[in-house]
């Protein structure tokens, strides 16, 4: 029999590895997925600033897409997206469709 | 102590190059306001940060079992003592620094929800502020005990429907006004107190930067929409916090060394209905028999906003 779980806990329940929540993927919570339309994106990065799950990928100050491993599909990015000429760069689509 | 140097403008491009010190994989609900508040606080500064956390949604969901979403030293001990805990850590730091065992400049931040700040943690917060610890307390105010199932707190606004003040045939939601904690903290005479919103991120980040440069106790109260408790959509956390500011329900201001300054004045003050309407917790206010409540909410907001503007103009800061 393997060691009981409580024996593997650190004294005082101290977590020694900072930020290890990345091992827990929350993407499966999602019912709607944000879809990025690059042609309408002005790289304002509001989606990145307002994402509660740090799931907007930005490289060199440019929006690059979403990290679907963690995105919970709340839709804040799509709502706050100013888009270009009235066309949003982020749209929410139902998962599995 | 007041810093008169012009703060650097906040650039999203620069901010986006920083490493997240609050990671994904936390288990806050989809569309929660609190992680947005935390990420904005931590991206505001490059200082090493040590944080304490009062019990609440943020604490239970960011640090579940053997997982933590924090990439900074973080401590939780109980509901009522986030401020006392970080005050103790800060005192230890000062002692070690005096002995020459630490030579780095470290900043101390306590995070608490409105339950852990307005109610349960109030005495420890008040005490830590009075003792003058060099710390910043950030309250993310979502207006009820959301973590345990939406019970009223002293931050719950007048008229809101919660599970312990349910709107029905007996009462039309909460009958008491929320207490104005930002002004209560300003009355402590501490060097810096501010009210902020995640929707106005540049303003918020500037306030955090300013606060961290000031020595002594600081307090920032931040509105943090909760779609579960406010009975709204998952995507409207930023929309609602913006409406809270634009209706002057949640005015953005700071009190620095006793001088009040309004940091954002809406071009046009929107009627409070715009903030209340999208929220299911205020649905009953829109039935004809509860019209007096809407009127009273608007009157209270108008009066508080007038008083705030008066305070700012008396200080020559409007």
Largest interface: A-B, 40 and 43 residues
Query: What structural class should be given to the helix and strand makeup of chain B?
Result: alpha/beta
- Largest sheet of chain A at a glance? 2 strands, antiparallel
Percent of residues in β-strands of chain B: 5-15%
Unreliable spans of chain A are: none
Note the gap between the termini of chain B: 21 Å
Task: Please provide a brief summary of the model.
Chain A is an alpha+beta fold and 97 residues long. Chain A has helices spanning 46-50, 76-80, and strands at 32-36, 56-59, 62-66, 90-94.
Protein described:
The complex is a heterodimer of chains A (97) and B (318). Chain A is α+β, with helices and mostly antiparallel strands and 97 residues long. Chain A contains two helices and four strands; from the N terminus they run E-H-E-E-H-E. Chain A has a single domain, classed as 2-Layer Sandwich (Alpha-Beta Plaits), CATH 3.30.70.20. Chain A has a two-stranded antiparallel ribbon. A two-stranded antiparallel ribbon of chain A has the order 2-3. In chain A, a hairpin with a 2-residue loop joins strand 2 and strand 3 (62-66). Chain A is elongated. The relative contact order of chain A is 0.25. The mean pLDDT of chain A is 93. Chain B has an eight-stranded mixed sheet, sandwiched between helices. In chain B, helix 4 (82-98) packs parallel to helix 6. Chain B is globular and about 70 Å long. The model of chain B has no long low-confidence stretch (mean pLDDT 95). The chains are: A alpha+beta (97), B alpha/beta (318). Chains A and B meet through helix 1 and helix 2 of A and helix 1, helix 2 and helix 9 of B.
Per-chain topology:
The complex is a heterodimer of chains A (97) and B (318).
Chain A: E1 32-36, H1 46-50, E2 56-59, E3 62-66, H2 76-80, E4 90-94
Antiparallel strand pairs in A: 1-4, 2-3
Chain B: H1 12-15, H2 34-43, E1 49-53, H3 57-62, E2 74-75, H4 82-98, E3 107-113, H5 114-119, H6 122-131, E4 136-141, H7 181-186, E5 192-196, H8 201-213, E6 218-223, H9 237-246, E7 252-256, E8 259-264, H10 273-276, H11 291-314
Parallel strand pairs in B: 1-2, 1-3, 3-4, 4-6, 5-6
Antiparallel strand pairs in B: 5-7, 7-8
